[in-house]
Amino acid sequence: MPDVADPTTYSVLVEVSLRAGIADPQGATIERALPALGLDGISGVRAGKAFRFDVEAVDEAAALDHATVVAHRLLANPVIEDSVVTVVAGG
Amino acid sequence: MPARVGVVIFPGTNCEHDAILGVERLGGTAELVWHGATSVDGYDAVIVPGGFAHGDYLRPGAIARFSPVMGAVARFAAAGGPVVGICNGFQVLTEAGLLPGALQKNSGLRFMCRTVDLRVETDRSVLTSGVPVGSVLRIPVNNFEGNYTCDAETLAELRGEERVVVRYVDNPNGSVDDIAGVCNAGRNVVGLMPHPERATDPLSGQTDGEVLLRSLLATAGAGVA
User: Model-level pTM?
Assistant: First the structure.
């Protein structure tokens, strides 16, 4: 028996959004369009991006680690963006 | 011997010939360098021109910084070689970590194509060494993500070390502290959103970019001697 577990595929979701305090003209523009729907009481619209991909890893913690590297080094620019990484399925 | 400039192109770059023409009009020589190249040896200066490198997918410059040539540009810059990023090239240099800060969408979500007044804030950079501080130059801008931002600590450093190279006289896009261009601590890497290479030919209606490219060529040429 190998003492390393076989890799399993984990589905990962990375959400990238502008950091608090960074102006979000896209979110603001969307918010200004809302009255055209006849809806009141919606505020704080922030636009962002979502990425889904699969990671092969020995366990969920390793999958999260790999996905976090991708999020920090490529998907988000830490100067202006935050990222949240979630393992949504697998294992 | 005329300064020899490498002009880096990625898939989607579209200002490379303007850069070459600008350099050649001023007596330099320029050659295209494909983004797959692993060396920029033999050049006296490198220009990363404007356009939409790798389609601007993800963020402008985000994919380009992983192109093989960027490792070579980083080594060239670390050795003191003059590097200038224009527009998309500025975005690439910030994503690559060769310059601080980031470029976000213009305030008001405007794609901006117009000529602006730029004030030269320092003559201690490879792009402004021959330009008196306080000079106001008419230079075109052409971008969607030209809104320069950085954290407060970085801004204080840029100001304290006189590393804001050019400012907008009338801020068109929300850039922090009216910043249009900055340089690295070594002052040999400069990035700016406006396009000096588009203001080097009387046919284009303006020639104020000449003094900037002339500074770059003079610095590059001095490196050869």
Answer: 0.92
